[in-house]
Amino acid sequence: MRKINYAKVFFGETRLKDIAVGATKWEVFKYKTTRLIKRLLVASFILGAIVGAFKIGRTTTTPIFVQAEDKSSEMYQEKIEGLKDAVMSKLSQCEGGGYKESDGIIIMDTNNKLSIGQFQWQVSSVQHYYKLMTGKDISKKDAVILALNETEARKLAKYVAFETKNKIGKDWVNCNKKHNLDIQVDMIKSME
Length: 192
Prior knowledge:
The chain has helices at residues 25-60, 72-96, 123-134, 140-148, 150-163, 173-179, 181-191; strands spanning 6-11, 14-20, 106-108, 114-116. The protein is mainly alpha-helical and 192 residues long. The strands form two sheets. A two-stranded antiparallel sheet has the order 1-2. It has a two-stranded antiparallel ribbon with strand order 3-4. β3 and β4 (114-116) form a beta hairpin. α2 runs antiparallel to α7 (181-191).
């Protein structure tokens, strides 16, 4: 079949019709029909290939359903607790001045009150924060014993630092300035 050349015919600026030069109506009909069939075949081949690939993909792959445990939040909490403990260790080292718990540190503070233990607690502060933390009163003797017990003193200091608005700066002014501990506390709190 020969290729048909079309000429565009205008009357003034208006297009009249595409006219096939030197072709009969039958040749024009065959040409247009053949061209339409070729386009339909190409389009259906492409569409068939896409649908076939999708169906093959669905039949050859089997979905696997897995019930996963969410341990990320536990790990995240453990890391946050580790950061809190690091801040408490800095505070203990700064306040304790290199002494050990067994040394039973008792120092006269600048306000003429005794500061006791690794965290240099004053008796009135231990009584105040212990009541806030537990809702129970504590005697002066028990406050001194708590301040000398590094584990209990650390637990109370951690409560003050991370659970009260005072953070570290109100009760441990010098060590807070030296190590920027309140900034670290704020950063850790923002992660929770």
